[in-house]
Amino acid sequence: MARNGVVWGFVLPILHTPNQFKMEMTTIELSFWPVLFLIAGGQACFFALLFWLNPKIPPPGKGYLTLLLLLFGYMLFFHFCWWTHYNLKFPHILLTNIPVYYCFGPLLLLYMDSLRKQPSLQKKWWLHFIPLFLVIFFLTPFYFLSGNEKLAAIHGQMSFPVFPGTRWLKELLSFKVFGLQMFVYLFWQIKWVRRLNQEDQSAGLDPVFIQVRYRWFSLLTVFYGLFVGSFLLYFLINDRPFFRDVHDFIISGLMTIAIYLIGYLAYQRPAIFSGRKHAAIFQPAKYATSSLTPAAVDSIRRAIVHVLEKEELYKENNLKINDLSDAIQVPPHHLSQVINDRFGKSFNQLINDYRVREVCRLLKKEGNEKRPVIQIAYEAGFNNKTTFYEVFKKTTGLSPTEFRLREYKKINSDTSASQHL
Predict the structure, then answer these.
(1) Nearest in space to 12 (alpha carbons), one of 21, 2, 23
(2) What region, left, alpha or beta, does residue 103 occupy, with left being phi > 0 and alpha being psi -120 to 50 degrees?
(3) I want to staple 300 with a disulfide (CB 3.0 to 4.6 A). Which of 84, 244, 259, 338 is the partner?
(4) What is the pLDDT of residue 355?
(5) Closest of 38, 13, 2, 29 to residue 252, by C-alpha
(6) Angle between helices 385-396 and 373-380 (to 10 degrees)
(7) Are 201 and 210 in contact (CB under 8 A)?
(8) 134, 172 contact by CB (below 8 A)
(9) Cα gap 77→256, rounded to integer Å
């Protein structure tokens, strides 16, 4: 974090006099906040190890989260060294923070994408790290300097080493450039969260799952937005007269909150990081201590079967869980619990199963041979053509047209056999 200026936009101090340089080299300043953030950084590395060793979290999401936590931990360590002047005692960490700034946005976005039904960014993940590769390439000559040479280069006592013809890459070290990259990924993540939520709803996933996952991704995005905002605000005000160290701590504070947030969720709901699409994993904690007795559960199950099979409530095109709840006079959360426990499905999956069963019955019914399939689907309760075809194919293994042809062949075969008899 720059307090006295920048060289090429580097986030590093400029010491104006040899005496000032000597003073800061010999002065180590330990205080409460830097030590607290150092401890948080150590815990980030510990959480990263737990994530990596957890077999319930599949790749590639495991890798993205593990690396994200490790980078958070390293940045807190870097900030600790900066505030306490240990960075001048151990100059080999100088400028190692710059590449890290280019990692946060891509890692979060790739993690979100990995939990989609059909991820679209995984095959070309490396494209998101091109700026990172360029920064590392540009800084490679500096990284291979000795400790004293690094200090001399940073403080203008020797020319900053670069590969021939690469001086234009120095702009990547400006906070304006990596700040812009952070903002781009922030808006990209907002768009991704909305798309994931729409895909979950179209896929007929359990409402509880959709709600919990949407909140989780929204929380990550909001936090990243606060991190980006405070990070850029720092560079706008760090040379102002009213600037105080407390503003410097905000960024590390947000990193610390993220670390403990992820650690807490990993303890409370470890499956949330795997993206597993099973509603029971994401049930609210009250389900574990539900007041429903076994007899009440059976009664609700029979009521569900009655309104679906006898009253054919599933044929209502815009049926929601609250509508079924009103029909059998049971609170929605109890209804969702029974559907998950006794039917082993989400609400949408259960309703769609009944609708597919009705479509199959109508397709086989005599007189419906030339009737449009989509018309039959709407009659059975579907209100979306795309969803209907996806659900039907997933349930029966055939498209509606293939199913109809197969049934006609069966009928013709049975008719021919009876005629021969």
Answers:
(1) 2
(2) alpha
(3) 338
(4) 94
(5) 38
(6) 90
(7) yes
(8) yes
(9) 11
Percent of residues in the chain assigned helix, strand, coil, to nearest 5? 75, 0, 25
The CA distance from 218 to 224, in Å, is 10
What is the rounded distance in angstroms from the CA atom of residue 142 to the CA atom of residue 257?
33
Tens of pLDDT along 301-324? 889 998 998 889 999 988 888 888
Is 136's pLDDT higher than 60?
yes
The CA distances from residue 334 to 20, 65, 121, 299, 330, in Å, are: 69, 34, 38, 12, 7
120, 113 contact by CB (below 8 A): yes
**pTM (predicted TM-score):** 0.62
Listed residue (142, 53, 31) closest to 97, CA to CA: 142
The Cα–Cα gap between 51 and 298 comes to 39
Tokens 């960024």: give the residue. 251
The two three-digit tokens of residue 209, written as one number: 């799952």
Say which amino acid occupies 360.
Answer: C
Domains in the chain: ranges and CATH: 18-277 (1.20.1070), 285-420 (1.10.10.60)
- Grouping H, G, I as helix, E, B as strand and the rest as coil, residue 275 is coil
**What angle separates helix 400-420 from helix 385-396, to the nearest 10 degrees?**
50
